[in-house]
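Retro notes (design track)

What went well: tokenization of the new backbones is finally stable.
What didn't: we kept losing track of which sequence belonged to which structure.
Fix going forward: every design gets posted as structure first, then sequence, in one message. First example under the new rule, 71 residues:
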């Protein structure tokens, strides 16, 4: 999946959650991390990089009180 397509999917999902959550008493949020698997790279390394990005997004969201965007 190309980076731009992945980012567009995340934006679309965030919007769907925001629209659907208007009547709920709790807010739904999520964080996403992404990485690229280079040719010849190991898939586990890419997953670990995406995990680090996701946890970085969570920390960012908590530190400034806003929704994190994928990094």
């Amino acid at each position: 999946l190309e980076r731009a397509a992945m980012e567009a999917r995340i934006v679309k999902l965030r919007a769907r959650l925001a629209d659907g959550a208007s009547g709920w008493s709790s807010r739904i949020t999520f964080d996403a991390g992404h990485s690229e698997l280079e040719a010849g790279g190991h898939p586990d390394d890419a997953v670990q990089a995406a995990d680090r990005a996701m946890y970085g997004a969570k920390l960012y969201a908590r530190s400034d009180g806003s929704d994190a965007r994928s990094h």
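Added context from the reviewer: The two ends are 16 Å apart (CA to CA).
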